[in-house]
Design brief:
The complex is a heterodimer.
Chain A lengths: L4 H18 L5 H25 L8 E9 L4 E7 L4 H17 L7 H20 L3 H10 L1 H11 L5 H30 L6 H4 L6 H19 L7 H8 L2 H26 L1 H27 L4 H22 L2 H32 L15 H14 L6 H16 L1 H26 L5 H6 L5 H19 L5 H14 L4
Antiparallel strand pairs in A: 1-2
Helix pairs in contact in A: 1-2, 1-4, 2-3, 2-4, 3-4, 3-11, 3-14, 3-19, 4-5, 4-6, 4-11, 5-7, 6-7, 7-9, 7-10, 9-11, 9-12, 10-11, 10-13, 11-12, 11-13, 11-14, 12-13, 12-17, 13-14, 13-16, 13-17, 14-15, 14-16, 14-19, 14-20, 15-17, 15-19, 16-17, 16-19
Chain B lengths: L1 H5 L1 H17 L6 H25 L8 E9 L4 E7 L1 H20 L7 H20 L3 H10 L1 H11 L4 H30 L4 H7 L6 E2 L2 E2 H19 L8 H8 L2 H26 L1 H6 L1 H20 L4 H25 L4 H35 L15 H15 L5 H14 L3 H26 L16 H19 L2 H14 L1
Antiparallel strand pairs in B: 1-2, 3-4
Helix pairs in contact in B: 2-3, 2-5, 3-4, 3-5, 4-5, 4-12, 4-16, 4-20, 4-21, 5-6, 5-7, 5-12, 6-8, 7-8, 8-10, 8-11, 10-12, 11-15, 12-15, 12-16, 14-15, 14-19, 15-16, 15-18, 15-19, 16-17, 16-18, 16-20, 16-21, 17-19, 17-20, 18-20
The chains are: A mainly alpha, B mainly alpha.
Chain lengths: ~500, ~500
């Protein structure tokens, strides 16, 4: 029997979200249990998909196709290849962790968890889409849950500003990308949004040169590409913990993935033409993002800017347009997603207990919350690209890839590594070691068992991948092969 | 049994990590158990290294006990281990010093479990560098070892530990950036990270790379490697992190820092720089020798100027490591000749001797500090009368560090100086000034601590060195004496490898 795994993964959060909204408001426990069951099930299924994907066969698997609006060539068409399977797993992991860390939420948990579930459907949908229209559909589905969750449950001071800024940036970006997508639809002359057909179209050179930057930049806004990264730190900081985790951990990958899937894979000649420009912008991301993170006084801003810096490496990997670079970018998307989810979850745990995120007001928390501290240290080591952790095995191939095309980018971007080390060590020593302020000594209690599960799961993934990169590399390679064929490389 | 013989290096490498994981599951309150277990666990790699030494065939050139399985095949990186004479001696030094440093750390009471776990992680990091035959794997272990050392200094260090630990890690990581870039570049150009393969492919490269002549690219990459290792050794003028790190580090960490971590840098020169860049090494041997000489002189002068006992020993390390680099520079200059082999023998032996004597000196400083809670040389005085056994041991170890004939340091410094005389005569003459000041600062320290009028405040407050502490220092003293009188047992192992390599 053919089980539509991907549709089930996409549908479960949606159904759970609707079910939660139907529950009476007072049933807080039931709401949480439904969300936990749904996210646990999607997590399990994403692990299942990851391990049952056939690497030797490669190509798109778990494919399902149903006509949706046949008149416009729109269909519900899902499938995953070696590049998107790790991202589905990432979304599964982070969604489950997001549900677990939000357990203590008191303010309208029903709506919160329902929106969180809708966000989950959106990201799964984008990663699995093989139809351009469908991809946009899922892409846009995230806008309102994101906006509302930040504006309603965000940190009181900046939530309205952060939510508005994020929404406007992303909205403009996706509108620009949509225009490009429509241009492709009409120019192809095939009246279809099927990306597997579109990628074989071979758009004229002039068309590709003209429209590539439009589509790429439109999506890259969500990927945090400089100079369109500005929404990210403000949005992350304003958002509640689980939303920060999903935003930085998964949503930024959605942007990067869409930029790759639509812009680079459908307009490969445009990508080759514009690659040096993207490399330039992404290099600014890496170094500038790290430098700005260095001078922040709010932990969450540090992490927010570090995401900007790390997403720059993903973009560098894309723009190197070769095997090593793309494979590294795929690793970096997964590794950074897990890492930043861990960062934001620990920051949330600290904030919930200390009620401040100012680095100078914190200290000595290791004694109080050792698990969270160790998790944060591991995430920090990943962040600075320490060998033995997933960040290193992801960044190294990216650098190798860019060495082949533009050595200067490697030489400049590596500065980001040392700046990252400086701010991470500063953060760790200030927040978790040294003397604990007396008022915190009395008030801070250890993290809950659910928090420990989150920290343990995320940290284990990063260490395992760092020690055994082959857990993921062959799969990514099979996905990269497909991209390389489109790019005309062997 | 066959697993043991075919995977002996893997076992040595990862047993410390396994040990650390065992400790993780013990309650932190079982202090005695944790101490003794950590010590016992660290003895297993030592026993296995001795077994490897017994099975090591010195007549074979090339690497032995090789293991080679894919680690990151997508970028052609392999888990490739193997040892030759040079790495065997370093392996023995590391696995010997780690249990001793753990034994020396029994006086630590604060968070003993975390401390011991970090120590065992550190051991794996250091061993990995000596055992790797894959450039990427080398880099992995090179960097990984920094983290436990950072936390050892940052958590169990002295007053300025935050400053010292951050300086330590940022200096080393900044140095590693160039190394990282150069390694990436080598991997991209040669398509492999396997060291034996790189030694052939990379050195044979000609034409142009990235629009530059290969010679220029190689020269740049050469300096990227050299600076990374120079910071670690440390070679003047990259040495400023060392005195701070040592002063703040707890005793056990200082022992490993001076005894093993500094050797990682010198080992980088031997394992990577000379084989991968024979032409550039020869071309830039002059400047390298000049830096080494400056290190010898300024290290000794710096030591002479200190009033803090531990800082004095730290500066002396800079001076002594200068001889290692002088030997390496001389060998690079005179590559292929008997002079080069002699210089190289001297350099490797000096690494071992300095590892023994510096670990011993830092330990003895620590013993005194634990009892007096000061390291100010002016606060001691006439302690020989109070602690004669300690005094005798300090005198012996200090003489080993000074290079007194009959003890290890003399043999190796003599070999280096004797060989370097033929190629860098002036550098050798200048370095003798350094040796003169070495005598001066060692005697100054001994006088301040042991001789002169007895400082009365210590009467009745200073206890004699205890049996556990003697157990730490005794193996070091015995080895210094054996190497001093009969160096050939260890030089034989080194010499065969060196003759084959250079």
């Amino acid at each position: 029997m053919h089980i539509p795994f991907l549709s089930i993964i996409i549908a479960i959060p949606l159904i759970a979200g609707l079910a939660i909204l139907l529950l009476p408001k007072e049933q807080k426990q039931a709401v949480k249990l439904v969300a936990l069951a749904a996210s646990g099930l999607t997590f399990f299924l994403s692990v299942w998909v990851y391990f049952s994907y056939n690497i030797t066969k490669a190509g798109y698997q778990f494919v399902e196709k149903v006509a949706w609006v046949p008149g416009f060539g729109i269909s519900y068409y899902v499938g995953v290849d070696g590049f998107s399977v790790p991202l589905v797993l990432l979304a599964g992991v982070v969604l489950l962790c997001g549900v677990l860390v939000s357990w203590g939420i008191e303010d309208r948990p029903r709506e919160f968890y329902a929106f969180l579930m809708f966000l989950g459907t959106s990201v799964f949908g984008v990663f699995a889409s093989l139809d351009l229209f469908e991809l946009f559909f899922f892409f846009e589905l995230a806008v309102f849950p994101k906006y509302l969750m930040i504006a309603v449950w965000g940190s009181p001071k900046t939530r309205e500003y952060g939510a508005m800024k994020l929404t406007l940036y992303l909205f403009i970006g996706s509108v620009v990308a949509l225009v490009g997508a429509l241009a492709m639809f009409f120019s192809s002359g095939k009246l279809t949004f099927d990306m597997l057909v579109l990628e074989q179209t071979g758009f004229p050179l002039a068309f590709q040169h003209l429209w590539f930057p439009v589509v790429f930049l439109g999506f890259a806004v969500l990927g945090g590409l400089f100079p369109f990264h500005n929404w990210a730190p403000d949005g992350h900081v304003a958002a509640p913990t689980a939303v920060s985790m999903l935003l930085a951990g998964v949503e930024m990958k959605v942007g990067a993935f869409a930029a790759l899937r639509v812009a680079i894979m459908l307009l490969p000649e445009g990508a080759k033409y514009w690659a040096p420009w993207i490399l330039g912008l992404a290099t600014v991301n890496v170094v500038y993002g790290a430098a700005i993170a260095m001078v922040q006084t709010d932990i969450k801003y540090v992490i927010g800017f570090s995401s900007v810096s790390h997403m720059g490496l993903v973009m560098i990997g894309f723009a190197s347009l070769n095997r090593d670079g793309l494979m590294g970018a795929g690793m970096q998307m997964f590794s950074h997603g897990i890492m930043t989810a861990l960062f934001f979850s620990v920051v949330g745990m600290v904030y919930d207990r200390a009620h401040t995120r100012e680095i100078n007001a914190l200290g000595g928390l290791f004694k109080k919350i050792p698990w969270a501290a160790i998790g944060f240290i591991i995430a920090g080591l990943v962040s600075m690209g320490m060998p033995g952790f997933s960040g290193f095995v992801a960044e190294f191939p990216i650098f190798m890839g860019v060495w082949r095309v533009q050595p200067w980018v490697a030489i400049i971007a590596v500065l980001g590594v040392i700046i990252t080390a400086a701010y991470i060590f500063r953060l760790i020593t200030r927040v978790f070691f040294g003397d604990i302020p007396p008022e915190l000594d009395a008030s801070v209690s250890d993290i809950t068992i659910k928090d420990k599960v989150v920290v343990g799961l995320l940290a284990t993934l990063m260490v395992a991948l760092g020690l055994f990169p082959t857990l993921m590399v062959p799969m990514l390679q099979s996905g990269v092969d497909h991209i390389m064929r489109l790019l005309g490389g062997a | 049994m066959s697993f043991l013989t075919t995977h002996i290096l893997t076992l040595i490498l990862f047993l410390p990590v396994l040990g650390a994981l065992v400790l993780l599951f013990l309650p932190g309150t079982q202090v005695r158990l944790i101490r003794w277990l950590a010590f016992g666990l660290s003895l297993i790699p030592f026993a296995l290294s001795l077994a490897a030494w017994a099975q090591f065939n010195p007549t074979i050139t090339g690497f032995q006990f090789e293991e080679n399985i894919p680690w990151y095949p997508a970028i052609n990186s392999f888990y490739h281990l193997g040892i030759d004479g040079i790495s065997l001696t370093m392996l023995l030094l590391t696995t010997l010093l780690t249990p001793l440093a753990i034994l020396a750390s029994f006086s630590i009471t604060d968070r003993i479990k975390a401390y011991m776990m970090l120590f065992l992680f550190l051991e794996t990091g250091m061993l990995g560098v000596f055992l790797s035959l894959d450039l990427l794997l080398f880099f992995v272990f090179w960097e990984v070892g920094l983290v436990p050392m950072y936390f050892l200094i940052n958590q169990w260090g002295g007053v300025n530990r935050n400053y010292a630990s951050l300086k330590f890690i940022l200096f080393t990581m900044a140095g590693s950036l160039g190394l990282l870039l150069a390694i990436q570049m080598l991997g991209v150009v040669a398509g492999t990270y396997d060291l034996p393969a790189l030694m052939i492919k990379w050195t044979a490269l000609s034409g142009s790379l990235f629009g530059l002549p290969v010679g220029t690219v190689k020269a740049i990459a050469f300096w990227a490697f050299v600076i990374a290792f120079a910071i670690k050794v440390p070679i003047w003028p990259f040495h400023t992190w060392l005195p701070d790190a040592h002063t703040e580090a707890p005793t056990g960490a200082s022992m490993l820092l001076a005894g093993v971590l500094l050797k990682l840098g010198a080992y980088g020169f031997l394992r990577l720089v000379l084989p991968l860049y024979p032409v550039e090494s020869q071309r830039f041997a002059g400047p390298l020798a000049a830096f080494a000489t400056m290190g010898i002189i300024f290290g000794a002068l710096g030591a002479l100027g200190q009033t803090d006992f531990k800082r004095l020993v730290a500066y002396s390390s800079i001076s002594h490591m200068g001889f290692v680099i002088l030997g390496i520079a001389a060998a690079a200059w005179a590559a292929g000749t008997d002079t080069a082999r002699m210089a190289m023998n001297g350099a490797v032996l000096q690494m071992i001797n300095h590892g023994l004597s510096a670990a011993g000196m830092f330990f003895l400083v620590g013993v005194l500090y634990e009892r007096t809670h000061t390291r100010d040389l002016r606060a001691y005085g006439g302690l020989f009368a109070l602690v004669p056994v300690y005094g005798g041991i300090l005198l012996f170890t200090a003489m080993g560090s000074l290079g007194l004939p009959g003890l290890g340091g003399f043999v190796s410094e003599f070999l280096v100086v004797r060989a370097a005389w033929q190629v860098f005569t002036y550098a050798v003459i200048l370095s003798m000034i350094g040796l003169f000041f070495t005598g001066a600062y060692i005697l100054k320290a001994l006088k301040a601590v042991l001789h002169g009028p007895l400082n009365d405040i210590w009467v009745g407050h200073l206890s004699e060195i205890n049996p556990r502490e003697i157990a730490v220092i005794a193996p070091l003293m015995v080895l210094m004496l054996i190497i001093g009188f009969w160096p050939s047992w260890i030089l034989d192992v080194i010499n065969r490898t060196v003759s084959a390599l250079f």
